[in-house]
Structures are given as C-alpha cells and as structure tokens.
Amino acid sequence: MAQIIAEVSRTFNEFLLLPNRTRAGCSPATVELRTPLVRHMVGERPAVELDVPFTSAIMQAVGTPELAIALARNGGLSFLHHNRSIEDQVAAVGRVKSAEAVGGAETLRVGAGVNTHDYRERVPALAAAGVDALCFDSSDGYSDWQAEALAWVKKHYPEIPAGGGNVVDGEAFTFLAEAGADFVKVGVGGGSICITRDQKGIGRGQASAVLDVAAARDAFRERTGAYVPVCSDGGLVHDYHVALALAMGADFVMMGRYFARFDQAAGAKLPAGDGFVKEYWGEGSNRARNWQRYGQGGQGLLFEEGVDGYVPYAGDLGEGLALTIAKLRTTMVSCGSVTLAEFHASARLTLVSDQSFQESHANVTLRSTPAPVV
User: Fold this and answer.
1) Cα–Cα distance for residue pair 122/296, rounded to 1 Å
2) How far apart are CA 321 and CA 230, in angstroms?
3) CA distance readout (Å), 62 to 52, 67, 181, 257
4) Which one from 26, 194, 231, 335 is the annotated catalytic residue?
5) How far apart are CA 65 and CA 266, in angstroms?
6) Residues 6+ apart with CB under 8 A from 306
C-alpha cells in the first residue's frame, strides 16, 4: 500500500517567528546578508556568494537581461530562461556580462537555466559566454535524467556551478547532492502562477518542504563535510515569508511573481483601475509553450500546469528590493541574528491557529488617505 507521511503539509502562513534577545550591537546596519550560492567544504569560503539572498525565477515573464543587470547590481542573481534557442540565451548572457564592463570594471554575475534535453549543446555555449552559474529547471528534479545531466556538467565543466531541482523532501535532496548538485532548489506546486497540485495532485506545502530539505542538508554536511546550499522556490506571498524561509534553513530564495512586478521584467505594463498591472504567465502555461520542460513540440500542452494573468505593478526593482531587504534586516534583529547562519541556528518558530492568523491583521476601518497632522 502507499506510504503515508504523518506530518501535515504546512505553508509559510502557518508560522510566525518568536523574538529572541536583541543584544547591543545588533541593528539593521550590522546585519550581514551574504550567503553561499554553491557547494563548498565546511570551513572554506564558497566560490560564489550572493550579497543578498535573492534570485529570480527561470521564467520568460521574469528573466530579462535588464532585470538580471538590476538584480546583480543590487547583490542578487538572475537565472535567464532557456525556453528559446541557444543563440538567443547566449546573447542574453552576453548583454548582462557586457553591462558596466568598461574600463576594467568587473562584469556582473548572471546565471542561466538549462534542461535535461539539450544540455550537451547548450552548456558549452553558455560556458563560452561567461555564465556564472547554471540551474537545471524542472517541475520535478528527482529523476535519473537530472542526475545524469548534473554528472555530465560536473565532468566537463567543473568550474561552473550547477544547481538541481525542484524537490520537496530530504531523500530527493540527498539524491541530487550525491549526483553533484552545487545547490538544490525546493518547491513543487507552491508558485503563485502554478497549478501543478490542482492538475496532478503532486507537491508539498513549502514550509514543510524547506524544513525537511534543510535537515537533510545539515545531515549531508555532517556526513561528508560538504555544504550544499538550499534555495526556497515558491510559496513566498509576503515579504515576511522570505524571513520565514531563511529561518527554516534556506540559504537563498527564488521568486517569480515578486520580480515580475517590476519595470525590468518582461511582461507588458497595462492600465487597470486606479493603477497599473504587469503581465505574468507560468512556464507550465500554454502561453509559455515550454517544449523544453514539457516536450510538446511548442504546439501547446495536453494540459496546463501554470496560468496566465497579471500582477500589480511595483515600479523599479532597486526600490522594491531595498524595501524587502529593510524588512528582512529588522526581522533578523528582532530574532537576535546578524548573519544568516545565526538565523538558521537560533530562530524560533511557532505554529499559527486560524484565530491567531486573524489577530495578525489590522482590525479597523482604514482611511483611504492618511489623517492630517495636527
């Protein structure tokens, strides 16, 4: 008979952080958000680090060169999507690497999504273009095909970090880590544009998935001496969900809807009501025609695992990300942490009842405009 996992599948909405003691010297200005992107031995510095723990999703609606440039300048990293010709993806990487690369300045970092179909042709071209990291993009990364592809990249291009995923449990994490993954992406069915759970009945609440995978990451570190970073991908509806994902053990997050709202994303900006929206569509939607992931020859899917819609327009990436980072810093201070490693080790979480969740929100009639200053 089928195996039943007794633990309830939980989301970020079901948790809150408890404050820890904030010691003297622990302030938003002293919080260090640098985090490893890639595998490294304990005690050694990773070859690639992020200044802030944010990456953008491998999506047509998100990953433009303009967004990759803006995110890199703000300390994060974009993975440019691969649902296009090798030449087009290589050209996009080149546009990012050439920005601000005048007068001996360092080039900006950029990643690229790859698939398990044409990686033998795509990866050499991306390597020649100077890509800084690769990530295998799959709605289900717990497969022999991905393990084989990771092993091939590590054999032929050991200097280029390659991540794997997506997975939702520790067993799958260990499988990809042993196959050579330099980081592992967590999340199936939790994205704002994803309907995999509705269509296929497959997935796991993102909080449960991150907690399980982070525990397996720590066990793998103890057993091998190698630290393989974990990326939380999906289920991040509010800014505070980022803090929860990091507290639960993620080293960095990957977001689609969040970045799709900004000027630099691919979707058209359209008027709506009193403001504007941006177009946003999933890689599992018919609009994406993602033959590389779903093998439908670009002629439409037998059924969709993503939808096509809109997200509220949010202006410039730099301004929006700065606000999210400010919130993250103050949350960490309230939890007594000035580094992400401390946050992992000392964060305390509590489950939230329905009544507690309601108590968390404002319970007054809000004015449409601020009250005048008297």
Assistant:
1) 19
2) 21
3) 18, 7, 24, 8
4) 194
5) 10
6) 191, 193, 194, 195, 281, 282, 283, 284, 285, 288
Contact 199, 305 (CB under 8 A): yes
Q: Is 94 left (phi over 0), alpha (psi -120 to 50) or beta?
A: alpha
Q: According to the 3-state scheme, what is the secondary structure of 171-239? A: HHHHHHHHHCCCCEEECCCCCCCECHHHHHCCCCCHHHHHHHHHHHHHHHHHHHCEECCEEEECCCCCH
DSSP string, 132-158: -EEEE--S---SHHHHHHHHHHHHH-T
SS3 state of residue 25: coil
Asked if 203 contacts 197 with a C-beta cutoff of 8 angstroms, the reply is yes
pTM of the model: 0.91
Report the C-alpha gap between 211 and 213 in whole angstroms.
6
Q: Is 194 assigned a catalytic role?
A: yes
pLDDT at 7: 87
DSSP class of 252: E
- φ and ψ at 291, to 5 degrees? -65, -25
Beta bridge partners of residue 255, listed in sequence order: 56
CB proximity list for 13: less than 8 A, separation 6 or greater: 237, 241, 352, 357
Neighbours of 11 (CB within 10 A): 17
Query: Any residues with CB less than 8 A from the CB of 258 and at least 6 apart, and which?
Result: 236, 324
**Residue 39 known to be catalytic:** no
Q: Please tell me what DSSP assigns to residue 291.
A: H
Question: In terms of pLDDT, which residue wins out, 294 or 110?
Answer: 110
List the catalytic residue out of 122, 204, 293, 329: 293
- Span 12-63, pLDDT tens digits: 999 999 999 999 999 999 999 999 999 999 999 999 999 999 999 998 889 8
Q: Measured between alpha carbons, how far is 66 from 74 in angstroms, rounded to an integer?
A: 13
Distance CA 274, CA 260 (A): 19
Helix intervals (H) in the chain: 65-73, 86-98, 119-129, 144-156, 170-179, 196-200, 206-224, 239-247, 257-260, 291-294, 317-334, 340-346, 354-359
Closest Cα to residue 140, out of 120, 112, 121, 116? 116
Spatial neighbors of 339 by CB under 8 A, at least 6 apart, are 31, 32
